[in-house]
Amino acid sequence: MNNKKTYYVTTPIYYPSGNPHIGTAYTTIIAWTLRNYKNLMGYDSKMATGTDEHGQKIQEKAKKQGISPQEYVDKMNIIYKNLWKDLEIDFDFYSRTTNKNHINAVKEQFSELLKNGNIYKDKYEGLYSISDEEFFTQKQAEKRENGKFYHPVSGHELVEVSEESYFLKNSKFSKWLNEYIFNNESFISNKKVLNELYKNFLEPGLKDLSITRTSFDWGIKTNEYDSHVIYVWLDALNNYITALGYKSNDDKNFKKYWENGDEIVHIVGKEITRFHCLYWPIILKASNIKQPTKILAHGWLITPEGKMSKSKGNVIDPHDLIQKYGVEETKYFFASLLPFGKDGIFSDEIMKNKLNSELSNNYGNLLSRTLAMVNQNFDEFVVYKKSNEKIDIEIEKNIIKYTNKYIQNFDQNKLDVAFNEIFKLGKKMNSYIDESKPWTLKKNKIRLEQILNRLINGVYAMTTMLSVVMPNKMKIAKEQLGIKELKIELINDFDKFNNIKVKRGEPLFKRIK
Ligand code: MSP
After folding, report:
1. Mean pLDDT of all residues in the chain?
2. How high is the pLDDT of residue 306?
3. Is the confidence at residue 37, as pLDDT, over 70?
4. Could you count the other beta carbons within 10 Å of the beta carbon of residue 323?
5. Which atom of ligand 1 is nearest to the CA of 27?
6. In this predicted structure, what is the pLDDT of residue 1?
7. What CA–CA distance (Å, rounded) separates 206 from 37?
8. For residue 215, what are the CA distances in angstroms to 15, 55, 179, 183, 218?
9. What number does the ligand 1 atom closest to the CA of 270 have?
10. Residues sharing a CB contact under 8 Å with residue 487, sequence separation 6 or more, in sequence order
11. Could you tell me the pLDDT band of residue 2, with boundaries at 50, 70 and 90?
12. In a mutational test of the pocket of ligand 1, which residue from 10, 11, 15 has the highest number of ligand atoms less than 8 Å from its CB?
């Protein structure tokens, strides 16, 4: 099937300077869920993630531990990959910026930019955040009473840097960039992000970007000048294309999912939109490469004590949640928790209540109640017949209506709203049960059959929609439903259970105490 539309979704590649936590897990879960959703919708959909292994911060970290940077990133890489394995995140591509292919591609790109006159040599004098690997002018930085400068968002202290550097001619592309982002409304997901980038960077005039460093050496050396290593962001952003084989011997995925691809989406935390919405498009434009479709910026997960930090002791390890709540429940929780772009609070209480009310009380209860009623009353299957009963017509309409709403919202990346539509359907089905009172119809098998068939169809719709985030749990539900496939286009085919025997099984979601 070569004519499927393609979808390529990426997470930022994470700095392995610390262990992953629920913030990193959050981004990866969102990307993975979107990948799965697009596959459900008939796309050929792929997801990439990885680790960002160069830069001054990593070098300093390794030094503190008395090991080489390579040993350090190798060790940390295992920790990241293990988390994705434990979270059952089956990504399609994995980037490590220390991979040979990636290194060669970045070096070659640098040479080309140099040859085409998009890079020039000068001296960088200004402020730098080692933690964020980000440059600032004094005006952009936050000056505190002690006279020192700080990163305006992360609050990390900035150091003065003065060194020879190569610069990317952003100024040459800023007119183009302005037009590009204002003419492509859907490129930047969020108006607030766009306005802030405009106010802070575009309106004052985009400065040329320092793209090499000479004061440390843990990075990709340029072919031309041995003492210059490529700025970690220029290195890292390119992972999105080197993951697909850009400039390698095998670039069929780059051709398929990027050059000829339909949708390319970068998911990023809101603090790194400057790199993705301004510099990345310029790097691509200067290298004659197609632009991604969308930069999707999300908010931060914070705890009731505020932002997670080691000193506050409130950093949450996703493993603890997997153990306590189950792996797919954890993924469901994060995928559905936040309106995209907004910050949100994580607490055990919120998690427990959400999982109980949605998965256990609403969906799980409907599944087991429906299958139990069928098994108690029918030895074989329940066949669909058209009905003129008002409540029957209404529940059929609702199955279709809430499925469509789920699709509409998912297509706008409103995952929280999309998932909520599933449970709205669940509520409608519970009211349908209350009104039709199947327990009073033991003797009226004809009517009972019609009600139960509609309930199975409703449960099938909910199961299919939830399968994008809980594929294994929904596989069990699918087996209980006795049906071969969970497909979006089968939802409005109400005949599909006509010769299928369902079988109630163990409850899928136990109540959490
Ligand atoms: N290495 C760069 C990205 C390079 S991409 C070309 C980087 N790495 S990072 O380790 O700092 O990870 C940043 C990303 O992790 C954020 O953009 C966000 O997606 C995710 N998160 C890290 N902490 C988070 C929260 N507390 N909440 C939500 N997301 C968080 O920046």
Report:
1. 95
2. 80
3. yes
4. 12
5. 19
6. 52
7. 37
8. 20, 11, 36, 40, 10
9. 17
10. 40, 464
11. low
12. 15
Local confidence band at 268 (pLDDT 50, 70, 90 cut-offs): very high
- Closest residue by Cα to atom 15, ligand 1, is 24
Q: Where are the alpha helices (DSSP H) in 41-169?
A: 56-65, 69-86, 100-115
Pairing outcome for strands 209-210 and 134-136: unpaired
Which residue has its alpha carbon closest to ligand 1 atom 25? 23
The pLDDT > 70 percentage for the chain reads 99
Distance 88 CA to ligand 1 centre (A): 20
Task: Quote the CA–CA distance of 371 and 451 in Å, as a whole number.
Answer: 12
Query: Is 70 exceeded by the pLDDT of residue 403?
Result: yes
Which residue of 300, 302, 312, 347 sits with most ligand 1 atoms within 8 Å of its CB, as the best mutation to test the pocket?
Answer: 300
Q: Which of 383, 463, 391 is nearest to 429 (CA)?
A: 391
Q: Tell me which residue has its CA closest to atom 19 in ligand 1.
A: 269
**pLDDT greater at residue 138 or residue 241:** 241
134-154 pLDDT, tens digit per residue, is 999 898 899 999 999 999 988
368 token code pair: 């087991």
SS3 letters for 446-502?
HHHHHHHHHHHHHHHHHHHHHCCCCHHHHHHHHHHHCCCCCCHHHCCCHHHHCCCCC
DSSP state for residue 89 in the 8-state scheme? -
Kindly report the protein residue whose alpha carbon is nearest to atom 6 of ligand 1: 237
pLDDT in tens, 469-485: 999 999 999 999 999 99
412: left (phi over 0), alpha (psi -120 to 50) or beta: alpha
List, chain by chain if needed, residues with CB within 6 Å of any ligand 1 atom: 12-15, 23-24, 26-27, 52, 236-237, 239, 268-269, 271-272, 300-301, 308
What is the whole-number distance in angstroms between the Cα of residue 154 and the centre of ligand 1? Answer: 12
Q: 256 near 284, Cβ under 8 Å?
A: no
